[in-house]
Amino acid sequence: MKTKSKCIYCGSINTYKVEDILSQINNKQYRLYHCRCCAIQFILPNRFEDVYTHGVGNQSMKDYVEELHKGRQTIEPPTMEVIKRLKKLKIDLQDKKILDIGAGDGINYLGLSQHFQIKPDNYYVVEGDKLSCDACRKRGINHVYQDFFSENFSHKFPGYFDIVLFTEVLEHQPDPGKFLEAVKEVTKPRGLLAFTVPNRKMLRISRAVFYADIPPHHLLRFSKNFFLKNFQEFEKIVVSQYPNPFMILNRERACGKVSSLLFGTDKMKRIIAPVFDVMYQAWRMLLHIRGNGIIVILRKVL
């Protein structure tokens, strides 16, 4: 098995294999590499595989896709983080041309329209999944393009958009360099890129139980260092980790599960409750230090 492979982003051969991965989604074998030059981690083979519409994948993923097709109403943490940062920067979205890449069911549009004055005719969506596109249209988005974002789209809209959004999209790309070049092409001079990715340094008990962060669903893994080292053609406005909210909704039930795990019975839950409370608060503090996600906001200067 190869211990080195050419970096799919910067082309360097200064890479090493991190681990072999047996995907729980399709039971296929993959290899994870780290590039010492640009700090990206990439999966090989890096081929897109439709594990969403043909009954492949675990039940959690199937449930998520089904929810997308219905059209979510709860604004998720990546979208909320983008909203928070844009408001803090006092970015005015009124009369701005906005492109939402990999928009899913249009949840970004729903969230942004609750906090900013956005004209539906100024909002454009590129999304590869037909049923998700239908959900976007039901939200009142006029410009919905059912396609995977590529140079085919960017050549039609060179320098057209004031703001380009892509939340939890970059980690799916088999060719991130090509994807980002197309993003750059559609962005106006002095236009903004606002996007989020999962943080590969996030705090978690086991990557194995985090079904989404495995191939072929995710093909790339990022740390904050990747965005700090690269993107020299952009002004870096925000490069920051952020935590997803972590809440225990039923403390008694949670204590019972821990009790059963440790002692084989839930009858010890009242005894372990004080220790559980301390550990829970410590875990939440650590989540703020090792955020689940990374948000990046760049301004195009070249």
Structural features, described:
The chain is an alpha/beta fold and 302 residues long. It has two domains: 59-244 and 292-300, Rossmann fold, CATH 3.40.50.150; 251-287. It has nine helices and eleven strands. It has helices at residues 59-70, 77-88, 107-115, 130-138, 151-154, 176-186, 224-229, 251-263, 269-289, and strands spanning 15-22, 29-35, 41-44, 98-101, 123-127, 143-146, 161-167, 187-198, 220-221, 234-242, 293-300. The strands form two sheets. A seven-stranded mixed sheet has the order 6-5-4-7-8-11-10. A four-stranded antiparallel sheet has the order 1-2-3-9, with no helix packed on it. A hairpin with a 6-residue loop joins strand 1 (15-22) and strand 2. Helix 2 (77-88) packs parallel to helix 3 and helix 8 packs across helix 9 (269-289). The radius of gyration is 21 Å and the shape is globular. The two termini are 41 Å apart. Residues 205-209 have low confidence and may be disordered.
When the domains are counted, the total is 2
Termini gap: 41 Å
**Name of the level-1 CATH class of the largest domain:** Alpha Beta
Across the major sheet, the strand order is 6-5-4-7-8-11-10
As a percent range, the share of strand residues is: 15-25%
Query: What fold name goes in the CATH topology slot of the largest domain?
Result: Rossmann fold
List SSEs in N-to-C order.
Answer: EEEHHEHEHEHEHEEHEHHE
Largest sheet: 7 strands, mixed
Q: In terms of structural class, how would the helical and strand content be classed?
A: alpha/beta
Low-confidence stretches: 205-209
Rg, Å, rounded: 21 Å
Number of helices: 9
Q: Going by CATH, what is the homologous superfamily of the largest domain?
A: Vaccinia Virus protein VP39
Quick one: how many beta strands? Answer: 11
Q: What is the CATH architecture term of the largest domain? A: 3-Layer(aba) Sandwich
From the spread of the alpha carbons, the general shape counts as globular
Question: Would you tell me the overall average pLDDT?
Answer: 88
Helical fraction: 25-40%
